[in-house]
What we know:
By secondary structure, the protein is mostly helical.
Amino acid sequence: MYLLSINSGDTAWMLISSALVMLMTPAGLTLFYGGLTQRKSVLNTIGMSYTAFCTASVVWVVIGYSIAFSDGNQYFGYLDHFLLNGIGVNDVSGTIPTILFVFFQGTFAAIAVALVSGSIIERVRYSTWFLFSILWVILVYSPITHWVWGEGFLYEMGELDFAGGTVIHVNAGISGLVLVYLLGNRSGFKNTSVRPASVKLMILGSALLWFGWFGFNGGSQLAADGIAANALLVTNVAAACGGLGWLFIEWFSTNSKPTLIGSASGVISGLVGITPAAGFVDVSGALVIGFGSGIVGYLGVVKLKQWLGYDDTLDVFGIHGLAGAFGAIMTGVFANPNINEAGTGLLYGNPEQVLIQLKAVLVVSAYSAVATFIIYKVISIFFGSGRVSEEVESEGMDMAYHGEKGFDISE
């Protein structure tokens, strides 16, 4: 009887999707971030994402999954599944094994916290980041996941977030911005031209992220069906449009040239924007969301950052926070009930959905900001400032913290 409740095709697809999402953090994101940072801090930058994947993977199975998906109240899951208590190999969620669902969701938690690191590289103590990544998954990511995907109050309100526009991208972008202001800018931020360590590694990392995103969005349907296929199609379209959107606005700006860093950043912006919408919109919606996300990302990274003067090292707020918010709100506009009857947007007769999406973005932003602030302050009280010394920052994080060099070449 048990065997009849599992669909082998759905299970096979979710096994592949989980592996694809896993690839995104220790391979795609590390290369993307590592290529963009300065040569003297490449390994530290990679290590922060790599370590975050390790800590999040452990924290998730110990307590994070239980907070996110156990029965509880509208805000917090209980600890019924602490250490995955009560979940056996024969348990089923929908048409797939529950332990596979646990693993799939765990890869989401891991990349979410790894994204945050991009805002504060080259100046944060490794020990501070280690502690922060653990507490953030428990106290920020897991509760928000419960609100949206664990049938919490945002789910009850009717928010549409197919694969993590608010849960992951808005959440990580806001947390990163708060940490930027808490830690302060890098020394000489406004007066020093920073050279990326390797544009080639950054492009490779962006391509791996693009590839892994098919599991990220397509797997979020938890089934091998038409909605999953649509998610793959619109994900690819939005990514391409995001790359073109950033490229065009950069190309035609005064005294500017089309850069590969810009193209790749636009692709990631498009991927971020389509994430909440992938299971709800058709190709026409993906074209608008992708192209718009590329422009929003560019304006956030190039214009807003310069105007406000904050040092978001790898532009997590601009690319993930702003493009994620844009995609979440546009989901309320373009959600097509002919694609997925669970979502109907403004263009199909439901203007209220836009307000629901906006409320969700604001609620997640507010909670993420306050909780991140508190976590960092508590760590600072007990373990000291999270900021490295000027000497360490000048020398580079790689030699100071790890005794290694990312590129074994003469200076």
